[in-house]
Structures are given as C-alpha cells and as structure tokens.
Amino acid sequence: MSQLDALRRKDAAMMPLGTLMGFEVESVEPGAANVKMICDQRHQNVFGYTHGGTIFTLADTAIGLAHIASLSPEETGTTVESKINYLRPALGGLLRSEARCVKRGQNLSFFECDVFDERDRLIARANATMMAIRDERSAGRDVLHKVEAEPSSRKKEVL
C-alpha cells in the first residue's frame, strides 16, 4: 500500500488544512484527483459568496494530489506557478474539483483543474506548473503527513 492509500485511510481530507476546510478526497490516481467540499458561512467573503481563496485552495489541493500520485517513489514535488480564473460566483453548498495532468514532463508537468458548483456549473478553472524533485533535494520530504507506507513495501516510498 502506498503512502497516499494509507493517508486516505487515515483521513478523508488527507491533510490538516483539508480537515480544517472540510475537504473530502473522492479519488486520487496518477495525474488525476477529485476533491469536494461543502461551503457554508465560514467560507464566505464580505459579499456572502464563497471566498475565492477557498475555491483556489480546493483546486490547488486537487492538482497537488494528482501530481503527487504521478511521481515515482524516488521523487517528491512542488508547485512552480499556479493561477485561477473565476467564471461565476459560488453561493455556497457543494463544490467539486476535478484535476488532470495536461502534459507530463521529466521535470515539469502542467495541470488543470475545473471547479463546479452543486448544479454542475463551471465556476472556476485553475492551472499549475508542477516540478518533480529528485535525489538529495527531496530529503526530509519522504513522509506524507506522518504516514509511512506499509511494512510490506520493499523499498522506502518517497513522495
């Protein structure tokens, strides 16, 4: 079992920020991830809409998980750049993000993520350039949220 699988079994949000925000990771596979959340008053901006930072954090999380799942056991990763376009306001309720890898490279990969409201309307599209990190540069980043791979793994899995 991989660290991602173990982490998902431990926590549906897969990370402390995800728990705080109310994320539920629906699926993670190499190059793709779906994350959802229920937005309420805690997530609103001054106008009563879902705060853009909440929407961006949801998209960023899905992209990050899709990237992590696509890395080899010897790699970790980081974001090089990201942006979002807001296409309509989100009034609250269910938000769902769908991240996918558009182009996988040896060092840099490009991802997109669509965020939909509960009526399946596209409310935002984000994209990010992600970097694979290898060798000594990834030292100390080999454990995801204090979850080790199962002992049956032959070599230490690094994400």
Distance from first to last alpha carbon:
13 Å
**Count of discrete alpha- or pi-helical segments spanning 4 or more residues:** 3
The best one-word shape is: globular
What order do the strands of the largest sheet run in, or round the barrel if closed?
Answer: 1-2-4-5-6-3
Mean model confidence by pLDDT: 84
Query: What would you call the structural class?
Result: alpha+beta
Q: Based on the structure, what is the oligomeric state of the protein chains? A: single chain
Uncertain residue segments: 147-159
Order of helices and strands: HHEEHEEEE
Strand content: 35-45%
Give the total of beta strands: 6
Overall helicity: 10-25%
Describe the structure.
This protein is α+β, with helices and mostly antiparallel strands and 159 residues long. The protein is 21% helix and 38% strand. The protein contains three helices and six strands; from the N terminus they run H-H-E-E-H-E-E-E-E. The protein has helices at residues 3-10, 16-21, 52-70, and strands at residues 23-29, 32-39, 76-86, 93-104, 108-117, 122-133. It has a six-stranded antiparallel sheet. The protein starts with a helix and ends in a 26-residue tail after the last strand. Residues 147-159 have low confidence and may be disordered.
Descriptors:
globular; disordered C terminus; 159 residues; six-stranded antiparallel sheet; alpha+beta; single chain
Give the topology, please.
Blueprint: H1 3-10, H2 16-21, E1 23-29, E2 32-39, H3 52-70, E3 76-86, E4 93-104, E5 108-117, E6 122-133
Antiparallel strand pairs: 1-2, 2-4, 3-6, 4-5, 5-6
